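Dock zinc ion; give full complex structure.
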Amino acid sequence: MYIPGDREVSVLYKGKTGKYNVYVHDIEYKTLDKSLYPESEHNYPDNCDDTKYISSPGVESMSITFSKQTYLEPNIDFIYITTNNGTYKYTGNLGGKTLTFNTDSLSIRLVSDSDANYYGYSFDSITTKRTIHVPGEQATCTTDQKCIKCEKIIQKAYGHDLVPIEVEKATLTKDGKTEGEKCSVCGVITKNKEQFQE
Ligand SMILES: [Zn+2]
Ligand SMILES: [Zn+2]
């Protein structure tokens, strides 16, 4: 059942066996390149307020594992991790700890007071998880591209690219009018001169 692809599932219910089909998405796990890992100064300085960032656009979650040395003055110095869903606060011994966030980017802000400095933080690994969807028809101005298996939106509709259209030609004595608008991609007219006449 956990092997990716189309699967038939049998269910026994009140002595009868029913079958239904499910699609199990493939899942991609990636360990980001170590050169991308942010880290604090070691030891971090007094009155530090330093923010570093890491992102991997499009992933569903990121798991970060702090190095063994990771340590902040307990309940005095803090790191604040901000994700797509909120900000979380940590202090003290974080050595070897793994945190998982449902986000594709995060920032790490280290704030220290005026004494007692420790190692700060670095990471042993940062891994990401991404579900591989099966793309349906390309997105257009007005329709999203969705996964054909689970309907998840892969690419939102782009929206029209509106450009002015000249609805009244200029003459020798009058300027042309350009109140009209149409989409340069699909050609739809969204406004015309009539709508603007009182
Ligand atoms: Zn899907
Ligand atoms: Zn359009």
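Observed: The longest strand covers residues 123-132.
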